[in-house]
Structure formats: structure tokens, C-alpha cells
Amino acid sequence: MGPIEKQWRNSLSRRQAVRRLAGFLAASPLLKSQQDPFRDHSRVPGIDELLTSFDFEAVAYAKLPGQTYHYTAHGTESEYTLRRNREAFEWVKLVPRAVADVSSVDASTEVLGVKMKFPLMIAPSSGHGALHPEGEVATHRGSSAASGTPMILSYGASVRAEEVLKAGSGPMWSQLYGREKFEENLPLVESAQAAGFQAIVLTVDQTAAYYERVQHTQHLSGRSNRGGRSSRGRRGAEGDETSNPYHIRYDRLWYNWPFIERIRPYIKVPFLAKGILTPEDARMCVESGLDGIIVSNHGGRSMDYGTSTLEVLPEIVAAAAGRIPVLIDSGFRRGSDVLKALALGAKAVCLGRVPRWGLASFGDAGVQRVLEIMQAELVLALAHTGRPNLASIDRTLVRTNFPWAK
Prior knowledge:
By secondary structure, the protein is α/β, with parallel strands linked by helices. It has helices spanning 3-10, 14-26, 53-63, 66-73, 80-87, 136-145, 161-167, 185-195, 212-217, 240-243, 257-263, 279-287, 309-320, 335-343, 353-384; strands at residues 92-94, 109-111, 114-116, 120-122, 151-153, 172-176, 200-203, 271-276, 292-295, 326-328, 348-351, 398-400. The protein has 15 helices and 12 strands. Mean pLDDT is 89; it is low at 224-239.
């Protein structure tokens, strides 16, 4: 065999040449073919498979960045109050009624002129945009689809109020955090009323500025949260430990009853105070001209080693003496939880974390689904206790065993 033939024999075939060219192109960084091929194929359950509100929390946890999830989940400092809110439901037992006609159960009610198919509302909570791209717009759309569940729009909403109002047909109330300079409150009140909000809810508790869980997980999220919140209630800067070593919310320590009495004439819609935990404050609400009370400890985010809302509810209801309605939030997860509060005198229950879990899980469909689950649980609990409607509920429906009453 001559040299030319040997060269031809050892040269690339057309197929080999094409293969090598393809390998060269595939290795190009411009084609991003060198990415890590691992993909997480863990199965996320479908929305119809979720049976309780707790199921939605698990999905929200899986979908959200850790920092975002813990913002919704955490309580103040040791989180004792957060835990006590849930523990309190173990101290109240439902009493079944074996013989009662509950072939038809009607859970409808009316609160301050707002007709509701169920005694459930969405409590104000900020920053829904971190949970879903549409934020409070999706929340309102989902709550409206769930039998027109009313929603209290947070003062710290991530979407303009006008956009949220247009998103659904359900009733909407507006949250207000008071400003120390009185004149700064008037535009907020006037714009809320002009926009069509049907009530204004003034949050009066001194929300905590320090969350230990945030400090424990700050380096796990890739971001630093040193200082927690600043002395004015915003995210802290590097030197906050020096300027505000005790993490006190100075922007709210000025709250007083004269402020409420002064602003009351400017509010032409029902006016409620959220954050009431004592009968003394409940009586002051009545005397100051408020139209309603929301018993709340900010979902365990306001003060460490505080009482649960459920255990103080009866004495606050007694102090209000039927003159104004008493609503409640903090720790409610099941329809049976709601029924216990109704039996102890609450007019309606506001849900904070539950709709946030629904929103983070499946957007507006998740909000609708989780609310409908709690509505169905409430109807079932009413049937099991032999109560065909809310008017038939009284204290005989429950037996309480609060530790401090022993």
C-alpha cells in the first residue's frame, strides 16, 4: 500500500468528523451545556389533595425562600406566645349534641353592616408580593371566590389599594397605623374612605421589633439581617445595635386614647381597634366611640410571654357587654377553632397566616381553596354539635379548662 493510501486509511471518516464537530459545539459555553444536570423532581401535591390548612403550610415552605417563609412563620423572641395561641385550643372542648336537626346548616352572619356567608375574614398582613407575583390582588381575588370572604387590606400592602379593590367583589376594610403627627393621618383616612373601604381598623398593639428566629437564620439565606428592625420600625442598618440596643419600636410608643377620640370624627365608616387583650381596654374602646374590637396579639408577634387571644376572649366579650361586636385573630387553623371562638362570644374570626399559605402555594386558587376548607370544617363542627345556625351557639357548646382558672 502506497503512502497516499495509508494516509487515506488513517484519516477521519465523514461520520467521525461530524461527531467531533458536534462535540466541539456542545462544549461551547455559549450553549450552556455544561450546567449541573441535577433537577429536583420531588412531587408537589395537587391543590385538591390538600385537606387542611396545615397541608398548605408544607407546600408554602417547599416553594418559598427560607427568609420569606420565616417572615410569615415567626413570632417574637422565644415564640412562647406563638405556641400558646395554638395550645389554647386544647383547653376548650366542644360538646356534641346527639339529637338535633342539622340537616341544613347556615353559617351566615352580619358584622357592622357587612353580610357574610361565613364568620371568617382575612386579617391584615403585609407584603403579599413576596409570596406571589400578584400579591394582594391574588389574595382578594381568591377570598372573593371563597363565598365573598371579606379582607382587611394591610397598611403595608405590596400593591396599590385601588388595584386590590378592583380585583374582587368581596367586602374590604382598611388597616391604619397611626402617625404621631396627627395631620398625617387625615389623608390616609380620607383616601381609604373615598376608595370604598367599608371600615377602618386601627392596629394598636406595640408590635415587636426583634425576632430571634430571624437572627438564627440570617446567614442561611445569603443575606444579613443584623439589627432586625431599626428604631423607626424599618430594616436596620449596621449600627442599630448601638443606636437602639433594646429593639424598641419608638414609632408606636406614643399611642394613647386621646388620639383615638380625636381622629374618630373624621372616620365616617365603622372604626375598630385591633390588638385588644384586656377588659379595661375593651371598655375604653366603647367609651372612645369605637364600633368594634379585634382581640389580637399579632399572631404571637407582639409580645413574648403574652396570653393567647382565645383565653382572654370571654372577659373582653363581657366587658363589651354587647355594645360593640368583638372579633378575634391569632392562631386559628381549623373550622373547629373558629367554632370555639364563636361559642366564647366572638362575632367573627380573622385569619392571618392561613391565607398567606394558600397564596404562596397556589396563588388566588390556593387562597380560595384553603378558605373553603375552613368553611367546610366549620359547617361540619356546627353539625356535630347540633347547631343549625350561628344564632343557636352559646357557652354550653364548649367546656373550658384554662390553666389559670384552676
